[in-house]
Amino acid sequence: MAKDQDRYWNDKDHQLDKFTQDNKGKEMSSNEGTKISNDENTLKAGLRGPTLHEDFLFQEKLAHFDRERIPERVVHARGYGAHGEFQVYKSLAHLTKASFLQDPNKITPVFVRFSQVAGSRGANETNRDVRGFATKFYTDEGNFDLVGNNIPVFFIQDSIKFPDLIHAVKPEPHTEFPQGQTAHDTFWDFIGSNTESAHMMMWIMSDRTIPRSFRMMEGFGVHTFRLVNREGTSHFVKFHWKPVLGAHSFIWDEAQKLGGADPDFHRRDLYNNIEMGNFVEYELGLQIISEDDEFMFDFDILDATKLWPEEEIPVQIVGKMTLNRNVNNVFAETEQSALHPGQIVPGIDFSNDPLLHGRIFSYSDTQLYRVGTNYQELPINRPVCPIHNNQRDGQGRITINKGQVAYHKNYLAGNTPKEVPPREGGFSTYPSTVEGIKVRKTAPSFEDHYSQARLFWNSMSPVEKDHIIQAFSFELGKVETVEVRQRVVNMLGKIDHELAALVAKEVGVKRPNVSQVSVQQSSAALSLMNQPRYPNTLRVGVLIADGFDGDETKYVLSELEEAGLELVFVGERLGDVEGSDGVKYSIDETFLTGSPLLYDGLYVIGGSDPSRYFMRKTRNFVRDTYNHFKPIGATEEGAVIIEQMNIIGKPGVIVEREASAFVNEFVTAMAEMRFYSRVYRNV
Fold it and tell me: Beta strand pairing status for 131-139 and 142-149?
C-alpha cells in the first residue's frame, strides 16, 4: 500500500499533475485528438452560406461550452479551495487505529474547501454567514472527509428539518431576494418558530460570521464522532481546527462596505498569501469523552445544537495542517470536489447524532446528482490508495475495467476482488448497542434550547455583546412582519433580559415578560477577544508621495516587513514615488483602486509637498480606518496632514518621533488589531 501511495504522491504537486494540462506552445486539437486548422470560422456552404451540420468541430466546441457549468451546490455554493498536507504530532494509537493518525513522520495530503452557506456563487464573500470548513484527507486507507463549519453548533437537531431551514434562509421565492443574507421574514419566521436554533443564532449574530480571513477563523466538525483503536475501545470525539494566526473578524460596517470594495476578498486573501509563501496553518484539536462518561453532562453529547464546553472537556492539540498550494483550476478542483461526512476510514466511526445520520445520506446523494455517478473518479476526489470493486458504467465513467466479471461472489476471477478482514485493514462498524421501539420523537435530553445560548451570551465581552445587539437589531429591522419580530424577541427574553429589552426597543416590539434565569455560567474560549494576536501577514496601507525622507522611511518599512507585515503602497497614481537619497517605491494601488477597507492598518508617510488631492484622500482613508478601530501610524509629515482630524494621541494612533521606538509601538498596535476604547469605555 505504501508503494501505491508513493506512486500517486511522489512530489509536491501530487496526483493532480497527472491530469494537469498546459496548452502553451502546443498544437490545437479537438477533445478526440483531431488537429484543428481553423478555429475562427464554422464550416459553411460558400463564403456567405449557412453553417453545415457536418461541422463536428463546431458541434464539439459549442456542446462543451453549453455544459461548462454543473448545478451549483444548494448550500455552500460560494467556495474556494487549496491543497496542503497534515501531520500528527504524536501517535494516537491509544485512541484510534486510523493510519494517518499513527506516525508523526507520515505526511497526509489534504484539500480544503472554504465556503459560505446561504449565498449563490455570486454572493459577496463578506456577508454575515456561516463559513464552511471542509477537509478531505487523502489517507493510505481511503479518503476521510471532515465536513464542518466555523461554528461548532447547528440550527437544528434532526436532519429531516434541513430542507425547511434552507428554504427559509434562501432568497424568498416570490421576489428572489435578498441574496446571501438572513435579514428577511422567512428566515426569522423559521427561527422564531424553531427555538432549538436559539444557540446557533447567538453565534451567527456575533462577529464569528464576518471573519477577517479564512486563515483566521476556527473550524469545527460540529457532530459527535467516534474514535476506535485496535483493541476495539471507542471514545466519543469532536474535531476542532485552531488557526495558528488566531481567530479574528471584521466589524459589521466594514464587512458591508467590503462587499462593494472587493466582493472576492476572502478568496483573494487566501490565494495571494499562499502565492507569497505565507502558508496557512491550522492545528487539529480533539475533545474526547469516554464511553462510560456519555451521560455525565448536563447536555446531550449527541445534540448538534450543543457544544462541549472546553473548561469541562479540554481541546487536545494533536497535529498541524498546512495549506501550501493553490488549485490549478477552480472548476476542476474546487467546484468538482465532492465532500461528505459519510466518508470515513477504519478507526473513525459515527455516533447516533440524528443530524449527522441525515447528512451521511444527503451529501453523497447531492454529489451523485450534482457531479455525476462517477464523481469519486475525478482527480480531486480520487483516493491515493488502490481502488478495486465490481461497480461499472454510469455517467462520466473514467476507469476502463478489464475482464468479464463484474459481480461477487465469483469463480471466473477467483472470487476477486476479495474482501479484507478487519484485522488486515478492512472497515468494521463499531458494535454499539442499539435498542428501543421505533418512534418519531425528540429525546427529552434534546429539549433544553436556551442554556448554551445563555452561556455564549455570558461569555462575550461588552464590545461583543454590543455587536450582537446591533446585529439582531439590524436583521430584525429588515423583517416586515411585526409578529415575526416579536416572536424572536420573545425567544431572546429566555436568553437574557437586557439583550431582549434593547433589541425590542430598536425594532419596535414589546419587551418580553419572562423570568430571568439566575445561572450565569461563562466560557472564556467562546470570546474572540481572548484569541491570541499576531501581526503576521496583516496588511498595512502605506500612503506615500514624492519627497519623503528616504533613509528613515527605508529603515522603518524594512523593519515592518521583518515583523511579518505586508506593505501595500498607496498613492495618487501608479508608477514610482521618489524620496531623498534616491529611495524609490512603486505604487501598488491608487486612492481610486485601493480602499482603507482592504488594509488592517495605515502608515501615513506623505511627502515634502503633497498635493491637495493626496491630502484630501489621505484624510478620507484615515477617517474610515479610525472609525473601524484600526491602528494608524504617521510620520511627522504625515501627522501634519491629519492633525485637524483631532485623532492624534487617541488609542492606536501613533506618530513617529524616533524610528525604532515607532516600529515597536506600531507593530504592537497592528497585533492588537482593534482599538475599541476609542468609543467603548472600560475596554
Answer: antiparallel
CB contact burial 295-329 (16+ within 10 A = b; e otherwise) = eeeebbbbbbbbbbbbeebebeebbbbbbbbbbee
pLDDT of residue 334 exceeding 80: yes
Amino acid at 456: F
Residue type, 56: F
Band (pLDDT 50/70/90 cuts) for residue 682 is: low
DSSP conformational letter for 446? G
Percent of the chain whose pLDDT exceeds 90: 82
Q: What is the DSSP string of 391-442?
A: ----TT------SS--SSS-STTSS-SPP--GGGT-----------------
Question: Are the C-beta atoms of 166 and 244 separated by less than 8 Å?
Answer: no
CA separation for the pair 622, 625 (Å, rounded): 5
Q: Is the CB of residue 180 less than 8 Å from the CB of residue 130?
A: no
- In 3D space, the residue among 140, 296, 302, 154 whose CA is nearest the CA of residue 220 turns out to be 154
Counted residue by residue, the chain has a size of 683
Helix (H) or strand (E) holding 323: strand 316-326
Residue 596 is given by DSSP the state G
Instruction: List the catalytic residues.
Output: 76, 149
**What integer is the mean pLDDT of 94-112?**
98
Rounded Cα gap, residues 115 and 9, in angstroms? 27
| Residue whose grid cell is 418558530 | 193
pLDDT of residue 2: 45
Cell numbers at 477, concatenated: 429591522
Long-range contacts of 174-179 (CB under 8 A, 24+ apart): 179/119, 179/120, 179/122, 179/123
583: its cell numbers: 529611495
3-state secondary structure of 358: helix
Cell of 404: 468479464
* 678 DSSP β-pair partners: none
Cα-based angle 496, 501, 503 (whole degrees, multiple of 5): 100
Q: Do the beta carbons of residue 526 and residue 557 sit within 8 Å?
A: no
Radius of gyration over alpha carbons of the chain, in Å?
Answer: 28
Which of 634, 629, 509, 587 has the alpha carbon at shortest distance from 249? 629
User: Are the C-beta atoms of 480 and 180 separated by less than 8 Å?
Assistant: no
Q: How far is CA 269 from CA 107, 242, 272, 282, 502, in A?
A: 26, 18, 5, 16, 36
Question: Which residue in this structure is represented by grid cell 476578498?
Answer: 265
545 vs 539: CA distance, rounded Å: 19
pTM assigned to the model:
0.93
Q: In this structure, are residues 507 and 489 in contact, taking their beta carbons and an 8 Å threshold? A: yes
- Measured CA to CA, the distance from residue 416 to residue 409 in angstroms comes to 8
Q: Which residues fall within 8 angstroms of residue 242, CB to CB, at 6 or more apart?
A: 218, 282, 283, 284, 285, 315, 317
Q: Are strands 584-587 and 575-578 parallel, antiparallel or unpaired?
A: antiparallel
Say if CB 375 and CB 336 are below 8 A apart.
Answer: yes
Of 143, 169, 140, the C-alpha closest to 156 is 169
Task: Kindly list the structural domains of the chain, giving each domain's residue range(s) and its CATH number in brackets, ordered by start.
Answer: 79-377 (2.40.180.10), 459-529 (1.20.1370.20), 533-678 (3.40.50.880)
Give the residue from 363, 340, 358, 350 showing the smallest Cα distance to 434: 350
CA angle 396, 400, 401 (to 5 degrees): 120
